[in-house]
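3.2 Worked example (two chains)
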Amino acid sequence: MAGTTIKPRLIYTLLCDDVRQETGGKFSLMGLFESISSHSFPALHHRFAIMNEWMGGKGEFTVKIRLLSPDQSQVISESESKLTLFNETQRHRDISVRHNTTFKVPGTYWIETLLDGERVGMTPIVLQIVKDQIIH
């Protein structure tokens, strides 16, 4: 893509159980959450999706999404994708799905978003232990 490159802004990061693209291009997000509860640890979470929305940029970029341990010293999982924006009013939604993720201990884990290697977002995901409660 020739011309001026303008880095986009990360508008939001959402966590949910699943994302589906409907006929006509609309996205449906199921089960939005900001924490995960478990009766014991390590805890296995079978599936969740991370959705980022970008805007205000122009050009081609590399997006990396990393799930970090509570002390941010360990990368539990990561994904990488390309992002192309043709003008500053265009929006782009980046979806990354995680399968069979093991959380070793309770605590605040982090979703780190990098744009061309530069950190542009940190979203907490709290893992908590619960007793005598139904978990769904």
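3.2.1 Second chain
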Amino acid sequence: MKFVLERIAAGQIVEGSERDVDVRPEGDGFAVHLDGAERPVVGQIGEVTRALVDGRPVEASVRREGEAIVVEYHGRRYTYRVRDARAPKIVRRRQEETARGEIHAPMPGLVVEILAEVGDTVEAGRPLVVIEAMKMQNALPAPLSGKVTVIAVKTGTPVETGALLLTVTPDEA
């Protein structure tokens, strides 16, 4: 699993602390690829964890505190925020979709209701499509004010993540 670690000190992200990390299960622990090197790590979060760093054995306490990971090593506490490595790409893609007035499926699911028709004038934030995923219904809102110009699905249609559901074209000012 790939993710990004950012160090937090005094409640703020430390400038330049961002690190790309790739973690894979291996044996009794994990193979951690960090700073251009792969390191075997034995142990689990919530207990004393052992790793080989530059050929030397290292022990540290590693645990979760809310959304953060806390590492205690030689009496010092290091707090990290974990962020999905894809996050910047996902945010950029969603901003582009919003600018185009598109609503895409945020997850695999089933379209259970379409709350607009082609030609309807809608306000930004108005729910337009309802998708059911994992027994929960999610109302997806209009990304901007305008007219519904495309409805790409029908009620009862199964959809995959990223599927185009509906497009709203902005009103001409």
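3.3 Remarks
The mean pLDDT is 80.
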